[in-house]
Amino acid sequence: MFGRSNRSGNYAYTATKAKAMKSRLIKEDDYNKMLQLSVSELAHFASEAGYQKEVTELGDKSEGVELVERVTYAYMANTFKILLNGSQGELHTVLAAYLQKWDNWNIKVILRGKSYGLSTDEIRNDLVPAGSLSAEDLERLIAFESSEEVLTAYEKLASMPIPAEYMADFKATGNLGMIEDYMDKFRYERLVKIIPTNTIPTRMFSQYVRGAIDIKNLETILKLKVEGVTGEAVMPYVIEGGKQIDSKFAKQLADAATLEDTYADLAQLDFYDSIKEQIDNGEFNVRNLILNTQKYEMSVAKKFANEYPLSVLPVIDYMLCMENEARNIRTIARGIESGLSKDVIKGLLVI
User: Fold this and answer.
1) How many CB atoms lie within 10 A of CB 29?
2) Number of structural domains the chain divides into
3) pLDDT over 70 (residue 2)
4) For residue 69, what are the CA distances in angstroms to 51, 130, 142, 196, 256?
5) Is residue 185 part of a domain?
6) Alpha carbon 272 to its chain's center
7) How many C-beta atoms surround the C-beta of residue 156 within 10 A?
8) Spatial CA neighbour of 100 closest among 157, 165, 162, 151
9) Average pLDDT of 279-286?
10) At residue 4, does pLDDT exceed 50?
11) What mean pLDDT is reported for the chain?
12) DSSP 257-292
């Protein structure tokens, strides 16, 4: 699945396709309109905004917030599959490695579903087939009786050997945490290795991914710090290959006694300006870190995509924007159902 291809790939075709898809994404003014709607009206709005096929297919199987969530996931998965399946050579290899995040997502859904005793249909409803695994692959994985069988099959499908000690821990405790963390780490570290660096655009993409690893590592370190986990205990969760946060820097952040003690070190990071206001205002926390770095990552991808329009970068730019659109629509639906004010919901959106 992830062997490096000798062909460079159809970059111009795939990038042009991605830019056409991006032009159809929901605009900022539309989000203001969506905040005025009920959840049922939101599903209708999504249908008119390009999600008609998915709304039609899923409308008789679910309703309300569940329908909105399933529709957004289905539309996103369909567009990502179009781009992945239409790509060739080196480009296909890189996109498959990038989209393994959704293969990992689906394995986690299947494993958790089985551990909670959910039905096949309940598990299937939460899948997002946006990665390399086909619908047939996912059906075969769901059909296995045990979680161990699922993991063994996925190891082969994804060429991702799971360390024996992690499997042993899972069999002994039933806790999937170590395996789930490993899958995410493996995905990032393999992606860094797979991305070729023989052209300026691919080097830019490599730098982007390494920056994303920095953000993910900081998010992990801060979450653990909030839970009281610091020092050496943090290091197994740190992903290698970051742009600025290497193991030494990560240990420095992990060793800090409080969140505030990390601020001086954070000032040297590329994305510091995106979180500086929250730090200065005393509002810096994991949620604000995630919201603001999402905006930062999108701005970086957009900049690179504009500079190199016939490369992998416009494809990644579209995928980030599409993920964000789906996340925004789901946030609005959940916020409306929960009775949150329009201002509170808008503050949770990344626009």
Assistant:
1) 8
2) 1
3) no
4) 12, 15, 21, 35, 39
5) no
6) 21
7) 10
8) 157
9) 90
10) no
11) 93
12) SSSGGGHHHHTTSTTHHHHHHHHHTT---HHHHHHH
Percent of the chain clearing pLDDT 90 (strictly above): 89
Residue 227 lies in a domain: yes
Residue 113 lies in a domain: no
* The pLDDT of residue 40: 92
User: Which backbone phi and psi does 325 adopt, to 5 degrees?
Assistant: -60, -45
Contact 51, 72 (CB under 8 A): yes
- pLDDT tens digit sequence for 87-124: 999 999 999 999 999 999 999 999 999 999 999 999 99
Q: How much of the chain is in helix, strand and coil states, percent to nearest 5?
A: 75, 0, 25
Provide the 3-class DSSP secondary structure of residue 252: helix
C-alpha–C-alpha distance, residues 109 and 131, integer Å: 14
CA distance 32 to 28: 7
CATH of the domain at 215: 1.20.1690
Distance of CA 35 to the CA centre of its chain: 25
Q: Which residues of 92-111 are buried (b: 16+ CB within 10 A; e: fewer)?
A: bbbbbbbbbbbbbbbbbbbb
Residue 59 within any structural domain of the chain:
no
- What is the phi/psi pair of residue 146, to 5°? -115, 155
**Verdict on whether the full-model pTM lies above 0.85:** yes
Q: How far apart are CA 222 and CA 301, in angstroms?
A: 25
Q: Which domain holds residue 229?
A: 200-310
